[in-house]
Structures are given as C-alpha cells and as structure tokens.
Specification:
The complex is a heterodimer of chains A (about 375) and B (about 290). Chain A is α/β, with parallel strands linked by helices. Helices cover about 45% and strands about 20% of the residues of chain A. Chain B is an all-alpha fold and about 290 residues long. The termini of chain B are far apart. Classes of the chains: A alpha/beta (about 375), B mainly alpha (about 290).
Chain lengths: ~375, ~290
C-alpha cells in the first residue's frame, strides 16, 4: 500500500509539471540595463513588468500566465545578438526589445530568421526600411517625427538657423540624417552640425561651439544621460537660445538630471504620461506607485509592447508565434478593443506606427503638453 | 579669440582633473612600483559612496559627504594597500597590475549593482553661472575646478617638499633601502602615499561629478586619460603628471572644438604615441637607465 502511494504521488507530480509549464507563456526581454542605455532600458523593463503584472492579475493571455525574463545587453550589439539568439533557443513567444537602435540593427535578423515578432523601442528610420516583416516599433520613427519638428522650428520657434547636436550612434545619426533635409526644405540654415559620442561626459567644448554658431535655436538629439549633461553644459556656457528636441530630450530622467537646465526645453513628444489622455495619466500613477519615480516614454513603450503581443494573440484566439507578426502588420489597435494599448495605434506594413503625438515644453521641472498632433493618416 | 579662451579654460579644467588622477598614479608608482589600473574607478567611486550614504542614512549632503569620503579613503587608501598591494607585490609588478585591473572591474560592477546603473545627480557647490573674461563666457564651475585642483596640488607640493614627513616620503620613493637605513619608517610612508592617492581621487571626484553626473562607468575615460597624462608628463615626476594632465585636457578640448567630439578619444592617444617616440621619458620626466 505504501509503495502504491509513492507511485501515485510521483505520477501526479510528473503529470503536474508539464501541466504547470503549459499554463505559462514565456516572453524574453532583451534590454539595456547597464551601459549608455541604462536609463532607457530600466524604464522599458519596468513598463514591461507592470504590464505583465496587470495581465497576469486578470488571468493572463488566453488563460496563460506570462513568464517574463530580462537579459541585460549592457548596450552592446554583440551581447544583444547573443541574447536574442538565446531567447529564441529558449522558446520565447516574442522578443521584446532592445531599445537602442544600434543593437536592434545588429540583432533583428536573428528574430526575422526565426519568424518571431520582435517589438522594439528604437526610432532610427533605417530599421524599418530593410523589409523585415517581424520587426515592430513601439515608438514613432524618425521619418514621422522630424517633419513635425522642422515645421515647429519654422512656424512656432521662428528659427532661421539651427545648430544640430547629435550622438554618434545609429539613433543619433539617423535622427541627424532625417532632420537636416527637413530643415533645408523648411528654408532653415544649419548653423552647426555637432557630433558627440555615446557615453560622453564632457560637453563643454560642444556647448561653446554651438554658442559661437549664433544659431536661432538648437536641435538636440542625444540619448538620455548625454542630453542631461549637454543641457547642463549649455547652461554653464550661458546659452539662452531655444533648445528643441524629440521625446528623449523631454523625458523624465533628462529633466531630473538636468535640473534647472531643462527648463524651457521644447519639442515633439511621441509618448508622455503628461499627455491629456486619461489612460496615459493612469499608467503614470500606477508606475509611480510601483517604482517610486515618474516613467518616461520608454516605460510606456515597454508597457504597450506587451499589450501588442496580448492583443495579437487574442485576435488569433491561439498561440502562434508567426501569427503574432502576421496579425500585427497593418492592424489598428483601439483602446476600446484593448485598453492596455492606451491610445489608438496603427501598425504599418513595415512595422512603423501611426498615432497621435504631442508638442511639449519643460516648465519648472515639469513636462507640459501644449498641443496634440493628429495621426499622419487619421 | 573669445572662443579660443573658452575652449582653453574648459580644457584646463578637464586637465586639472586628469592631473589629480595622474599625480596619484605617479605617487603610488614611485613609492611602491604599483601601476593602479583602477585609478579611474578611484575617481568614480567617491561620488557614488557619498550619494549612497545620503540615501542609506538619510543624511544631509555634508554628512553624507563626510561618511562617503571617509569610507572611501579608509577602504581604498589603507585597505587597498593592505589587501591588494601588499599581498600581490611579492609576486611582481605584472601580477599586481592585473590585480588592479580586477579591482577596477569589481569597483565598477559593485557601483552598478550596489547603487545604480543609471547616472545620478551629484550636488554642486558652485553656482551654474558664467562670467565674462576677455569677451568669453567662462563657467564658474570650470574656474572653481581649476582653483581647487591647483590649490590641492600646491598643498601637496608644499607637503612633499616643505615638511619633514613629506621629505621622508620622497626619500622612500627615491631609495627605500637607504631610507630604511636612515631610520625612516618606509612601510608607513608607503601607506601614507596610498592615502594621499585616495584623497586626490576624492577631490577629483567631488569636482567633476556635478558635471559628469555620478555613474559607474565614468572611471573608464578618466582612468585612460590620467594614465596617458602620467606618461606624457613623465611617469617618474609628480610635476610631470601635472603638466601631462593639463596638456591632455587642453588637447582633448581643442580636439572636440576644432576637429570633432567623435575624435576626442583618439587625439590624446596620438599625442601619447608621439611622446613615446620622441621623448619616451615624458615632457618633464627623468631618463632612467638600467645597469646590465
């Protein structure tokens, strides 16, 4: 009788293990938790964790709990490739991340060959011009954002000349290559074209160079920490011209690090917890409560990435890795269908997004939304 | 002209930081034949420890600074000598150098995992303002860095050359065997050198962190440039380290200004190669000869 109980217990345990594993769906996040991308990556990771917790608390995806794993790439393209390969080898349902454009470019073919959707935080225009049907952005691309900024510089800032300062990585170079033609189209002269380095700490010389260019405005396209250092250096050098940038420049971490130097910074913002959208503000409150700091756009991107996977899976009514990508391409996800998407989002065939965006300014250490811009194709 | 002055001041300020670290390099090399490849992290870590003390103890800035600085000097001045240098030096200079590389990694990863992977604000004791000098807007922070660094270096020079203890330290550096015969406590002098190195790193850290922000990876560039500065100026001369630091800082600033920030890491390396080829003992170094 004792032996029978032992056998029965072992059998039940053996049966339970596969059943337990079958109750979960694995997602791997390949993310910059250290190195130059630590700020962006940390926000992205926390946004993902918040989404996973929310979804699991409500029963998961089609009844399955999400198991999330984060691999730190150290903002290194080689590490990113290895991490994506590992994620695929481990059977991830979709790949989340990375955030930085350079590592995305280095790793996206791996997910493509495996026919697994990769939802990324990068904005470099070139990423979605390579025919990769498995790459999906969670932010607007530079191609969509730069015309809006050029128009803003011309019509609102009234700048006749602009100094462009950019970080010499895929993100920065892509942005620089996108903005300069737009400035020229708008009839704005490029007074200075200043390249800086990822991870650069000393921006004194760059600030001096920009000041002496006598530009009417400065377009700043750097990563988070470099943006903060640059703004501080600009203030130290007494630069008073308008500082205009994209989402990153007006991010929460930049505002925190730059302090008073961030006041007056203006720009186009793709995602913001300060946007006049209740769902964004609600997300901001939940994020603050859980992590004790204000999320930047990367937190929102990570959060929405998970919900994109959820929406695509539930649309299929089954777990099909390739089907996730097939379902996302060309789709429009509405908050009425999936509240976690936060705002209506159209996914283009090439993986770019089309959705509303905002014009903002930093006032007294807070990002203030001044205007809402419509979708490119409403 | 105004533009050049602004670049020059910025370069001197940066160079002053490199000089502080380079002097530390030189001091520990002279007294104990130690090449401290963790020197950059020695400049990075004090700021992290100060912020950590403020966070952990809820202390005001001044108290957090005292706790962090004291902890750093105790651990990485005295502790470094006793726990790393003394055990490893008996195996030769190369194993010791490798040990300092390992220490560098430990310090960096420790700061990343124990504190934060992200940059953090470090309080500045100088207002963010500019003053007009010959038509150039000069940052008060840069002027403060220059003034403080030169004051500390001047104080060090006075101590080394003008006090009995300092002269004993010099004697130990020049010839430890004879110094011991003369009754100088050599071990204590070497330990004092390591404490001074840690103190110099603290000064550099407090001066530069308000600009660079406190981050675990800050030590990489500072360490590299300090090493270059020490060699450019002359590895066996403290004054050489000062000159080397200023030269590297100015070259770095001018490279960013007149070439591009994209090449600013390369130009000091080119300078290093040129110096090694043309004057291997450094700008102010003393040519050393070996008897074979």
């Amino acid at each position: 009788m004792k032996t029978q109980w032992i056998i029965a217990t072992a059998l039940a345990t053996a049966l339970a293990l596969p059943a337990s594993a079958q109750d979960k769906v694995k997602l791997v996040d390949v993310v910059e938790l250290s190195g130059a991308g630590a700020t962006a990556g940390t926000n992205w990771k926390n946004g993902i964790d918040l989404a996973v917790a929310d979804i699991n608390a409500k029963g998961g995806i089609l009844g399955k709990q999400i198991e999330i794993v984060h691999y730190d790439t150290q903002t290194n393209p080689g590490n990113t490739r290895a991490a994506v390969q590992r994620a695929i080898d481990e059977g991830t349902y979709a790949v989340l991340g990375p955030v930085f454009s350079g590592p995305i470019g280095a790793s996206m073919q791996i997910a493509q060959r495996a026919e697994i959707a990769q939802l990324v935080g990068g904005e470099a225009a070139g990423l979605t011009k390579q025919g990769n049907q498995f790459l999906f952005r969670t932010s607007l691309s530079q191609t969509a954002a730069m015309p809006k900024i050029a128009n803003y510089l011309k019509n609102t800032v009234k700048a006749g000349s602009v100094a462009v300062v950019w970080v010499n990585n895929d993100f920065g170079k892509g942005g620089r290559d996108a903005i300069i033609p737009e400035l020229e189209k708008a009839g704005i002269k490029v007074a200075a074209d200043v390249a800086t380095e990822q991870g650069q700490a000393d921006f004194a010389a760059d600030a001096i160079k920009i000041k002496n260019s006598n530009a009417d405005a400065v377009f700043v396209y750097l990563n988070e920490e470099e943006s903060a250092r640059f703004l501080r250096a600009a203030k130290q050098q007494g630069i008073t011209k308008p500082m205009v940038g994209e989402t990153t420049l007006l991010g929460a971490k930049v505002i925190e690090l730059a302090g008073e130097a961030a006041n007056g910074v203006r720009g186009h913002v793709g995602l913001s917890i300060d946007a006049p959208i209740p769902a964004f503000q609600e997300f901001g409150k939940k994020f603050q409560a859980k992590y004790n700091y204000a999320s930047d756009h990367n937190g929102l991107k990570g959060y929405m990435a998970v919900y994109m996977v959820k929406w695509a899976t539930e649309k299929q009514k089954k777990f099909d890795k390739k089907g996730v990508a097939d379902t996302l391409r060309g789709a429009t996800i509405k908050p009425s269908d999936e509240p976690g998407i936060l705002m209506e989002t159209t996914i283009e065939e090439n993986g770019d997004l089309d959705r509303e965006s905002f014009l903002a300014e930093v006032i007294n250490g807070k990002q203030v939304i001044n205007a809402t811009l419509p979708k490119i194709r409403p | 002209m105004a533009e050049f002055i602004a670049y020059l001041i910025a370069g001197i300020a940066t160079g002053a930081i490199y000089a502080l670290a380079a002097i530390g390099f030189t001091l520990v090399w002279q007294t104990s034949q130690t090449i401290n490849f963790a020197q950059g992290e020695f400049v990075m870590l004090p700021a992290v420890l100060v912020l950590l003390a403020i966070k952990l103890f809820g202390a005001p800035v001044w108290l957090g600074a005292l706790i962090g600085i004291a902890a750093f000097i105790a651990i990485f001045g005295i502790g470094f000598k006793l726990a790393v240098v003394d055990p490893m030096i008996r195996h030769g200079v190369l194993p010791l150098a490798i040990a300092t590389m390992a220490l560098s990694i430990i310090m960096k990863e420790g700061a990343k995992d124990g504190f934060s992977a992200e940059a953090q604000n470090f309080p500045s004791f100088v207002p963010t303002q500019t003053i007009e000098v010959f038509g150039a807007a000069i940052s008060l922070q840069h002027l403060a860095i220059i003034a403080c660094a030169f004051a500390v270096i001047g104080l060090l020079q006075w101590f080394v050359g003008g006090t009995r203890l300092g002269r004993q330290m010099q004697a130990t550096a020049q010839n430890p065997t004879v110094a011991r015969i003369l009754g100088i406590p050599v071990e204590r002098m070497v330990l004092l050198t390591f404490v001074i190195n840690a103190a110099l790193a603290v000064v550099a850290s407090v001066l530069i962190s308000p600009i660079y922000l406190a981050k675990f990876s800050n030590g990489e560039v500072i360490g590299l440039f300090a090493f270059i500065a020490a060699i450019v100026g002359g590895f066996n001369q403290v004054r050489g380290a000062l000159v080397g630091g200023l030269v590297v800082g100015i070259v770095d600033s001018m490279a960013a200004a007149y070439i591009s920030s994209s090449y600013r890491l390369a130009v000091p390396l080119v300078l290093l190669v040129v110096i090694i080829l043309l004057k291997p003992e450094g700008l102010m170094g003393r040519r050393e000869e070996r008897r074979v």
